[in-house]
Amino acid sequence: MASLICNICDGAVEFRDHKELEEFLFGKLVAYGWRFDLALDTFLNVEVLRWVVYNHFACKQPKLNVKPRQNFKRTRGASRPKEDTSPAPIFHSLTSDSYLEIDCVPFSRLDTSLRQLRDTLKPGAAATLEFTTPAPNITFLSSEFNICAVPFLPRKYATPPPNTPHLSTPRPNRTATPLLASIHRVLEHLTVGPSALTLESLTNVSEMYADGLIAAVERLEDDRAARTAFVNQWGAAGLREELFMMAWEAALFRSGRHLIRWIVVVRK
What is d(CA 204, CA 182) in angstroms, rounded to the nearest whole number? Predict the structure, then answer.
């Protein structure tokens, strides 16, 4: 898989029809009389494991919430004010209907954030949550899990250059949460316990989400100005990488056996 991605970025291999990726996922892709199977290599397996572990521990590090230093002299012998090392809340007090994308919430903070949402949502207000989960048949670090992880891994080309953190990547804030969360876990934290919310609707929007990804691919392919701007910033290899990753993610949602996209509406 890693060598395939490298060949795609280099322009040596191209999938001209997005539907071919779905066939490739299931080992049904045939071209020029040859059948092509997807093979995972040790390098990709290690990369996925390393990314998941890094994602977990990096997100657990507390961020200092230090107020600007006041221009006052400290009385001799007085203790130094303690720095607040508690992580900032993901969801603030919600007083009206809100839309929340929780794929960007670190998995180590997902449970706490969902309970916080449940506790802070004001009576009468509704919240719409959109998120991704793996299909029920996907097990942690299995071959299928690693296949699902591919579009979430850090890009090789579309990444900010050194010392330029202000530059954003095409798809920032990708966490491991979409590969680790479950619909049952999310609903349990929202609808069970004190201040439980009422579930108004639960919708599988995987097909619609995949259509949006393919539409983004086609816009980038067909819009000359957008394509030129992308190449100027990330290079031709970065463009091929991004197009493949978006199309690959769409195939994972369309397959019915890899990723599922949900929209949940809850009300207090």
Answer: 13
pTM for the model: 0.81
Which of 241, 229, 206 lies closest to 10, judged by CA?
Answer: 241
The tokens describing 219, both together, are 């816009």
Spatial CA neighbour of 150 closest among 254, 22, 245? 245
Crossing angle of helices 42-60/2-10, nearest 10°? 90
Lay out the sheet containing 126-134: strands in order across: 98-101, 126-134, 259-267, 198-204
Using alpha carbons, list the distances in angstroms from residue 17 to 82, 247, 248: 58, 10, 12
- Burial class from Cβ neighbours inside 10 Å (0-12, 13-18, 19+) for residue 161 reads exposed
Q: Has residue 45 got a pLDDT over 50?
A: yes
Query: What value does the mean pLDDT take over residues 185-189?
Result: 95
How far apart, in Å, are the Cα atoms of 182 and each of 69, 146, 178, 260? 43, 17, 8, 10
Query: E strands within the chain?
Result: 29-31, 34-36, 98-101, 126-134, 198-204, 259-267
Q: Which residue has the tokens 């809850």?
A: 266
Which stretches of 26-134 are DSSP H helices? Answer: 42-60, 110-120
